[in-house]
Amino acid sequence: MTVIDDQGRPEPPIAATELDTLVGFLEYQRATFEWKCAGLNSAGLNATTASSSMTLGGMMKHLALNEDSWFSERLLGRDPADEWADVDWDTDMDWEWHSAADDSPERLRRLWADAVTHSRACVATALERDGLDTPAVGALRDGSHVSLRWILVHLIEEYARHNGHADLLRESIDGEIGE
């Protein structure tokens, strides 16, 4: 039975299989990010703090890109999603961060939610192959192929790092605090 906390986040299981633990922590981090972005309009999603140009909207698009690129492209070898297919990454390595300012809050939320849903399906496909040991089809720069296990841990790290940024941004926007 999944325990849901006061912010609507599923608590990771405290005694479970490796797979359930990894997925539980990733889902918790995703839900934390969703909570930090909840209820914000365009001004809120485009707000910055201190000397950083980072925004919650940019972060949302960045995390959607990470979901797609790690689980769909790298893990399963699929083509980039339409959102990313025609981007000239050589001209702007941080395109997702910059272009988010032109997207509505609804579009950003849908893009991120769709990427998460698609990633869950990609994980299920990979699990049917070799479980957590499923090697990524796409290689890293050094030619090595990480496992699904590695990608899950990497995405947990990616969300955890950005959730710290999201805490600071959200507090500067409207005083909302918490984890």
Topology:
Layout: H1 18-37, H2 42-45, H3 56-76, H4 82-85, H5 95-99, H6 105-130, H7 148-174
Question: What is the radius of gyration computed over CA atoms, rounded to a whole number of angstroms?
Answer: 17 Å
Structural class: mainly alpha
Level-2 CATH architecture: Up-down Bundle
Distance between the termini: 23 Å
Q: Fill in the CATH topology.
A: Four Helix Bundle (Hemerythrin (Met), subunit A)
Element pattern in H and E: HHHHHHH
Count the DSSP helices. Answer: 7
Percent in strands: under 5%
Helix content: 55-70%
What is the domain tally? Answer: 1
SS elements, strand count: 0
The main β sheet shows up as:
none
| CATH superfamily placement | dinb family like domain
Write down the overall mean pLDDT: 96
Shape: globular
- The residue ranges in which pLDDT falls below 50 over 5 or more consecutive positions are none
Protein name: DinB family protein
InterPro entries: DinB/YfiT-like, MST-like
